[in-house]
Every structure is written in C-alpha cells, then in structure tokens.
C-alpha cells in the first residue's frame, strides 16, 4: 500500500507498507509488480496497520486514479477492522479525460509519459500513489488557469462526476477571474484567430533546405526533387518513384522554393496520411520557413458551435454525455482548428459527436458565424500557401468550386489511389431506414406547414420505394421517381433542412438508380444506390490553369494499361526515378497455407491464427494486413481466446490511435486493414515483420471492377492480366513500402496466401516482387527459422 499526503499543493509526507494477503500471488501480479510471495510473507497483516492508515487519511480528501475501485476496497477493509472511512473522494481518471481532451488513453502510465510524471516503478503502490499525487497537482494547476466563464459552465455538469470530484472545479471557480484572452460566444469560449507571420524564402537548392531541417538528402530523393522542380509546367507531369525515398519532403521543398508557385495543393489518399503529413513534414516546414499551411477536410470533421451551444442548453441525465460536454468545453479553449479528430476518445460515444459535427450550412446572422471553424477552414484554403487535403475531399471541393484549383499547383500523392476514389465519387447511397427516421424527427420538431408537407411527401416516396422493393422485388428505381424526389429535396433544403446523404443521391450527375439490402447490427436495411454509367475522368475536373504533378510508385499498371490513360490524360510528361533493390527487406511466401476461398475459409483463418501466434514468439513488431474486416475481427477473437496480446483496428480504436499505441510498444502485434495498406509509415521500428494475410485483389462482383472490365474489353484487352493482377501487385508493393522507410530499417515480409505460389499467375507475382526484394517459397517451419536469423 502506498499513500502520499498533499498540503497546500505540496507533497509533504508518504507512507508505504506491504500487506500479507495469506494467499499466493498469481504469475500476472508477480510479473506486473515485481512483488514475491516470500516478500509478502514477512509483511504485516492489514489489521496490524489499519489504525495507522485510518488516522493518516481520516481528515483528508481521498484522491485516486480510478477512485471507485481503490476507495471502496480500502473502505471495506477498514470497516472490517472497525473504522468507518467517510472522506470525500476525487477521481483523477475523469478529471484527466475532461481537462486533457487530446490524449488517446488515460492510464497512469500514459499520463506519466505525456505529463512527465515520476513513475519509476509502475504498478507498485507507492510509485503509483506518488504519480497520482503529481497528476492531481498538475490537474489543479491547469484547472486554476481556466477562465471563470468556462468553469462556471463546467460546474453546471459537474454533478455527473464520480463522488465529490466536482469539488476540484468548484474550488477553482471560487478563485477564478474572467479572461480577455478568449472570444466569448454564449456559453462557449474559443481562441482568437491566429495572426499570419511573414513568410521566409526557401533556398533554390533542395539539399540546403533539407539541411536546414537537420536532414540529409539521399541520392534517389535528390533525383526525385530535381525532377519535380524541372518538369512542373502546363503539361500534367507523372513521376514514378519507389516507396521509402522521402517523396513528401522532395516535392514540398522543391515546389515551395519556386517563386512562381504561389499556392500548392497536396492531395493524399487518406485523412490518416493527411494528418500525418500535417503533423510532421508540413509542420516542420511551417515552423522553420513560416509557410502558411492548412489541412483541408470536409465540414463533417469540424465542430458546429451553434449545435454544441444548443446541447449545452439541454438538461441531460446521461453522465457520459455531460462529461463529454465538459471535455469539449475545455478542448475549445485549446484548439486552433476545431477539427474533432483532435479529441481521441470519440469512438467511445460517436453518436454524441455526430450531433455536433458541422453540416456545411452556416447562417451569416448566427452568433457563431465569425468564429465558425468550418468557415475559417474554408477561408484558410483560399489564402494559405500550402494546403493538404485527401483525394476524396479534393474531388468534392473541385465539383462544388471549380475555381479552387485555378492558377495553383496540384500534387496528387500516391496517384494510383485516386482512380478508385473517382469511382467512389461517381456513386452515392442512402439508407432508407435512417433517412425515414430523420424525416419523422424533423416532422415532429417543425410547426411550419410547408416544411411538414415536404417532409411528409418525401417520407411517403421513400416508404413507397421500400415497399415495392420487398413486396415486388423491384431493384431498379425509375428516373422520373428520382427527378420528383430531387425537386422536393431541393425545396426542403432551401427551407433549412439538411440531410447530406439524401442531397447526394439527388445530384443531377447520377444516371443509374437501384435498391439493395444489407444486414447491419442484425437488422435488415434498404439502401438506395446511385451511380454514373461511365468511368470518371480526372482530367475533366481539373481546370487547365492548374499545373498538376502525379506521384506514384507505379504508373505503368501493365504494358497495355497505364494510370495517365485511365485518368483521362493523353498529352502528359513522364519521369521514372530508378528504383533501388533494398537488401534489408526479404519476402517469404508460405506455400503450406490453405487456400483462402470457398470451403477452406475456416481452415485458412485457423492457419492465420496459428502463424500469427508463432510469429509473436519472435518478439518483433508485427503488422498483419487483412483485406476483410470480418476476417480480421474473427482472427482477433481467436487470438483473444489464446491470450495473444494484440491491437485490432476499429476493435481497439481508430487506425491513427492504434498505430500510435503500436509505435509506443503497447503491443507487438497490430491487425489492420483499409488505410494501413495505403500510406501509413512505420518509420520508428528498426526491425519489423509485415504479414500479408491475403492477396489484395479487387472483388470481381464490385460495380467499379465490372465497369473497368467492360471498358478494357471494349479495347480488346484482358481485364485480369492487364489490370486486376497488376493492380493487386501494385497494392502489395505499396504495402511493403510501409516497413521500408529508411536505409537502416530491416523488415521481413511474409505472404500467407499460397495462391502466390500455386496459381497459374504465381510466376507473374513472383517476377514483379523479385525486382525489388529476394523471395523465398517455404513452409511455415522453414520461414520461422529463416526470419529469426534474418532479424537477429
């Protein structure tokens, strides 16, 4: 047991003692704490120290990290010895969640790392107590600095905190003063808009700029930067360069150094990679050269202050909702962007955050108009020298505002990813069940007669569509139906009603309409699907005055098909940076794996579990990439049963969160899909095992794949060998580049899909991969032995 006494915000005394439990410790407790049975055998019983403990704390406030557990346990033990503990109780977990809203986890160990608390022997009583005391003092100091206006609003919700935790806020409120450092908007305080600093010029020499950032250029990186600087002209320019050479700094420093590049827009495949570049490369350049940079996302990423104010005015009995209100109030004092992704605990209560997300609508007469984060983001996109966005939002923005790219330079990074993004952009879907519920809620909330009639009419149309689907099996939706629906939806929007998915499916560019059903959370859902019949061409969306640069590891998909043609470009420049074989990476193909198809699916997943369990014994960081979320979760559940420690995307948090936890070493095994294939870098690991669980082929029944196949067949090309197989190989190479980000990084690639060894197209895969790495085809036993020797 460990106790730390605080008086007048100073640590004045400590007390510690072991307690003899008169029962053996579990192996887990021994490993966690370092305490042994022999040590506790010499310790006093609790009855011998109960009076000392009680007299030490009877007049104190009981502070603990998870006070509900600690205080209840101690109070029960003291009661059994005749002492009744009635001290007020304060929980530092809840206080940390509210007053440090940007943290991902709130364990004492994680907080000690973030806040530089002394925690030398974690999970020992006195060390944990001492760290908790320091945490409590830091919390008090931070709360004390908050403006009175915010503390006053926080106090309205403080009864939702455990026990007497609110007393920390109440005490701070008694001493607080109004602050003029913030802008007051109703119950909300936000930071004033930041002033723009004067920009510094970059050197015309790439290596000089890199040296100023305390980095050294690699030969391939320098060649890439030179190609970027030399070829950005009126023609679209495509540059092929292998992963891992530092392309981001290559194009950023080269282009920002050119005086005729007044505005630079960079589009990357995912929001995760967008955040990664903003936090690393863009921030470093902005801090050194005062380059104004901005991360541009869709409105749904930002908080809508007006919606949040309405929530603050509501009385909620739900303790979790009230604690999140408090957390957001504190976060608004700190954020400069209003990007809700800064709050890392969203996945615990996504429905709450959905109610305060921006919908893209803004009333100019609103109290919050001048400090609306989405509007500020939009304005920054018009003035910042460097704009980082993602492929999906780039297309949305250009469609809404074609002038956005005029007279700018556009870099499309990982350009091969924008082709499928174009197809996704050419489609939209509407969940009829969710839309009907929204319409009913709006009908109940409005008294305007015209609004009610429009809501009722749209609701009737969607209900009739749903009935026809289930009663008559009608999957096709008549064009006239969509024309009538679109008119009503437009009229409704003009009255101030906004439902994004409903508006999207009614856009005039769609020409195909059909219904599908899906099973979500054990409930059957009806989905209205819309699409354009032909492949979209990026060349038609980008204005002629925009100078475009496309960067990719592979531009020639096959001898018959290349990326520029698929994107609609005929007149373009092409540069290829010679690739370099990297000896610190090797590929093993497991020929003993069951095939992943048909009736062998269960055997295949069992084999994945067995191999991931074996690989975990090597005690190296392991990234396992899946093509199916369902398969990933199934494997994860089996690993849980075997008590194999791991992190799983979506199950244990969003991709960005669990990657950071993996990088910190919380677990040596990470299961991921989706964005982990597309550009998440693992540069911090000197050695790594990358497991490809399945060849990343496109689903042949997917509408996009069928559209591409139809296009290629009309050109007398083979859809599988000229497109599907090369694209799959490209994805493999992109994934392998995730663990090859610097020269001294070693990675073992293990492909657990025997099709790469036994199918008729296996030679094509092996030949393509062997261009960059050595390949070995073995059984798992030999692979384990070779990998263990490779990663010594």
TrEMBL record:
InterPro entries: ATP-dep_Helicase_C, DnaQ, Helic_SF1/SF2_ATP-bd_DinG/Rad3, Helicase_ATP-bd, Helicase_C-like, P-loop_NTPase, Ribonucl_H, RNaseH-like_sf. GO terms for molecular function: DNA helicase activity; hydrolase activity. The keyword Methyltransferase does not apply. Its EC number is 3.6.4.12. SUPFAM superfamilies: P-loop containing nucleoside triphosphate hydrolases, Ribonuclease H-like. Pfam families: Helicase_C_2 (PF13307), RNase_T (PF00929). Residues 207-465 form the Helicase ATP-binding domain. It comes from the Bacteria. PROSITE patterns: HELICASE_ATP_BIND_2, HELICASE_CTER. Residues 607-781 form the Helicase C-terminal domain. Keywords: ATP-binding, Exonuclease, Helicase, Hydrolase, Nuclease, Nucleotide-binding. The keyword Magnesium does not apply. This is ATP-dependent DNA helicase DinG.
